[in-house]
């Protein structure tokens, strides 16, 4: 008879990989649905806890979905199936499917979201862009798990300096396809070597990117004013070739590489408690479904 871990075993293992204590204070991570006593045979990994991912989990017969984004970030007073989120909870509970969220704790962890993105685009010699502060204000979390490797984003260098154009093409090739593709701010012929990355929305971290001396910053959801001001300042201080340049990717795409790491690392760590089958969702849950090019670019 093949042994399978319980959901409690899986949660314990996920929390060793992505300690909840390293999540941001506003975040909502952990188990959303599921009975800790239930056996877990099949685990589906996805960026978003949305209807199409629930469909995929039900079709495949998954016992657990691990997502990056929370289903509930704010308190609710009803999970009746009269809303899209309540309906999703009902479907998961009815099918006996657990939902577990690893969000900013997965961003910060070694081999987490930021590391997976950094690996995908070939960054070496890297450190956290903003190292995690421990509860006592020390450089790392007090739980002692790889303190120097935990924190928001990563900064490192490319094996060989290259042009911004070649680098942006490499980013596009490394990430799953999206309608947005890859947007660039800066001189495509400029040379880039030091790179900062933040999975998900990263325009609050420009100061850290500048302090780190990054030539280019890869992140998602960059807004007009922060992006414009960053480039204006860079050109004022360093001329047209002055960094940091910006490479803006789809939020979904920036976080997707982590799913493979999570599946592999969880499977390995669960080996003593039993076998699990894992699958990384290939459903594109990026909300953007089309892009109409500007007329003058026809
Ligand atoms: Zn995100």
UniProtKB/TrEMBL annotation:
Binding site for a divalent metal cation: 68-69, 107, 251, 255
InterPro entries: DUF34/NIF3, DUF34/NIF3_sf
Pfam families from the UniProt entry: DUF34_NIF3
Signal peptide span: none
Location of region: Disordered: 132-157
Keywords: Metal-binding
GO cellular component, one term: cytoplasm
A GO term, aspect molecular function: metal ion binding
Protein family per UniProt: Belongs to the GTP cyclohydrolase I type 2/NIF3 family.
PANTHER family: GTP CYCLOHYDROLASE 1 TYPE 2 HOMOLOG, NGG1 INTERACTING FACTOR 3
Assembly, per entry: Homohexamer.
Name the record gives this protein: GTP cyclohydrolase 1 type 2 homolog
Organism of origin: Oerskovia douganii
Source taxonomy: Bacteria, Bacillati, Actinomycetota, Actinomycetes, Micrococcales
């Amino acid at each position: 008879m093949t042994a399978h871990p319980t959901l409690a075993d899986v949660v314990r293992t996920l929390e060793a990989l992505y300690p909840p204590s390293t999540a941001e204070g506003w975040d909502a991570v952990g188990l959303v649905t599921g009975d800790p006593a239930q056996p877990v045979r099949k685990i589906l990994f996805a960026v978003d806890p949305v209807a199409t991912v629930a469909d995929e989990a039900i079709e495949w017969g998954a016992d657990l979905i691990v997502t990056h984004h929370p289903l509930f970030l704010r308190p609710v007073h009803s999970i009746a199936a009269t809303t899209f989120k309540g309906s999703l909870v009902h479907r998961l509970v009815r099918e006996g499917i657990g939902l577990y969220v690893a969000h900013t704790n997965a961003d910060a962890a070694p081999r987490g979201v930021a590391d997976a993105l950094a690996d995908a685009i070939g960054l070496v010699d890297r450190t956290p862009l903003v190292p995690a502060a421990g509860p006592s204000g020390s450089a790392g979390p007090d739980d002692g798990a790889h303190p120097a490797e935990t924190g928001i984003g990563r900064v490192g260098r490319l094996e060989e300096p290259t042009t911004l154009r070649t680098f942006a093409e490499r980013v596009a090739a490394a990430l799953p396809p999206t309608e947005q593709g890859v947007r660039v701010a800066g001189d495509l012929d400029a040379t880039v070597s030091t790179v900062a990355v933040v999975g998900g929305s990263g325009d609050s971290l420009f100061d850290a990117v500048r302090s780190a001396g990054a030539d280019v910053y890869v992140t998602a959801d960059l807004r007009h004013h922060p992006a414009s001001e960053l480039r204006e300042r860079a050109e004022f201080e360093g001329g047209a070739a002055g960094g940091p340049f910006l490479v803006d990717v789809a939020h979904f795409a920036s976080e997707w590489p982590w799913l493979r790491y999570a599946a592999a690392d969880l499977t390995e760590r669960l080996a003593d408690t039993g076998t699990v089958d894992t699958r990384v969702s290939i459903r594109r849950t990026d909300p953007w479904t089309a892009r109409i090019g500007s007329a003058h670019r026809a």
